[in-house]
Design a protein that fits this description.
Number of helices: 8
Order of helices and strands: HHHHHHHH
Mean pLDDT: 91
Strand content: under 5%
Largest sheet: none
Low-confidence stretches: none
Length: 166
């Protein structure tokens, strides 16, 4: 087990015990709600993990290295931005796929550009949520104000990574 898993397990145990000591019924209710949530998201999570493994098996490492590897430069940053903008899904399905890209050699700059573009420019989110709720004028202004963040974040991440890992 890694450190973050141990911290999460300990934190969960501490919170559960604190709630249990105050109200055993509430602790049981919270535990049942957590298990219900786990059962609800498990199919998506399992599918995402399998998809992530399939990506590792089918996408050639050389292809990833060329387009998004640590030596891909600006091309990698722009590919990361494009893929991050076009990749649909939330964190439960998305992060396992990104982790598979890390295992097959994506560079830190393209990775950060991808994450930043996914968070700022996710086309699925813009179409389904932002445009209907806020209208095109606000969406366009937000997009223009955010335009250079994925490129800047990826570029700075690559510089910091190189300095810290030199």
């Amino acid at each position: 087990m890694d450190t973050s898993t141990i911290v999460m397990l300990l934190g969960t145990l501490i919170v559960f015990l604190a709630i249990y000591l105050k109200s055993p019924d509430s602790a049981g209710q919270g535990l049942r709600a957590g298990i219900a949530l786990l059962l609800e998201i498990m199919p998506r999570l399992v599918a995402a993990m399998i998809l992530a493994g399939l990506i590792q098996a089918i996408v050639p490492k050389e292809l990833v290295a060329h387009w998004m590897g640590k030596e891909s430069g600006m091309r990698g940053l722009f590919v990361g931005i494009a893929l991050g903008t076009l990749t649909p899904g939330g964190p439960m399905t998305h992060f396992p796929i990104i982790a598979s890209f890390m295992k097959i050699g994506i560079g830190i700059g393209p990775l950060v550009s991808y994450f930043t573009a996914w968070a700022l420019f996710g086309l699925h989110r813009i179409i389904m949520w932002e445009l209907p709720f806020f209208g095109p004028q606000i969406v366009v202004i937000r997009l223009l104000a955010s335009l250079f963040f994925p490129l800047l974040a990826g570029w700075l991440s690559q510089i910091l990574w190189n300095k810290l890992n030199a």
